Amino acid sequence: MNNRDSSLEALHDIRRMMETSSRFISLSGLSGVSAGIFALAGAYIAHEWLQGDHSGDFRMLIWRLVLLAAVVLTCSLLSAFYFTWRKSKKVNAPMWGHASKKLLINLLIPLVAGGLFVLGLLYHRQWVFIAPTCMVFYGLSLVNASKYTLSDIRYVGLIEILLGIVNMFWPAYSLFFWAVGFGALHIIYGAIMWWKYDKLEIE
């Protein structure tokens, strides 16, 4: 009986090792929280800009909003890198390996395609569809990359896609959908992931 239990435990250990090697598990929940905070801050700034009188410089406003989105994205990526690097050190796992390379590739394919699509929308002055397009392609990138990291990310991606599709029919509320999709959803998800995975490592 003891030999059987030992064999089962060894099989479980091998399975855990295989999952660890095929999945990037060092992604920190704090990355999501920080990204959500940056997104909400960006949404607030965008709201303040939109409240002003821009009858004569609407195109300049659009490009300012695009620049703001780029700054928010950069800050989010830097914070994600920092918190992921910190977690990798805590769990003594390599940050750049086979699993993280696959994760990055599968994440970038829809993101790059979405970025080029958004540039096309900007070129044709289809401003109202930029926010929902960002959410849909971002959601697709999360779903596509979820098989190489924490599976919970898949659900976040599906919600992002749903929010983007709904936003397509109510483009006047794009800033609200942006704040919910990139702000509140990231904070909620990040907090849950921190409690579910990161908290155990701290304790």
Characteristics:
203 residues; mainly alpha; 7 helices; globular
Task: Walk me through this protein's architecture.
This protein is an all-alpha fold. The protein has helices at residues 2-22, 29-51, 58-90, 98-123, 130-145, 153-169, 174-202. Helix 2 packs antiparallel against helix 7 (174-202). The longest helix has 33 residues, at 58-90. The radius of gyration is 20 Å and the shape is globular. Mean pLDDT is 83; it is low at 10-22.
Question: Secondary structure elements and their pairing?
Answer:
Layout: H1 2-22, H2 29-51, H3 58-90, H4 98-123, H5 130-145, H6 153-169, H7 174-202
Helix pairs in contact: 2-3, 2-7, 4-5, 5-6, 6-7
Radius of gyration: 20 Å
| Structural class computed from helices and strand pairing | mainly alpha
Q: Helix and strand succession?
A: HHHHHHH
Distance between the termini: 33 Å
Kindly estimate the percentage of residues that lie in beta strands according to DSSP: under 5%
Q: Helix amount, in percent?
A: over 70%
The 3D shape can be described as globular
Major beta-sheet overview: none
**Mean pLDDT rating:** 83
Compute the number of strand runs: 0
Total number of domains:
1
Which parts are unreliable, with pLDDT below 50 for 5 consecutive residues or more? 10-22
Count of alpha/pi helices: 7
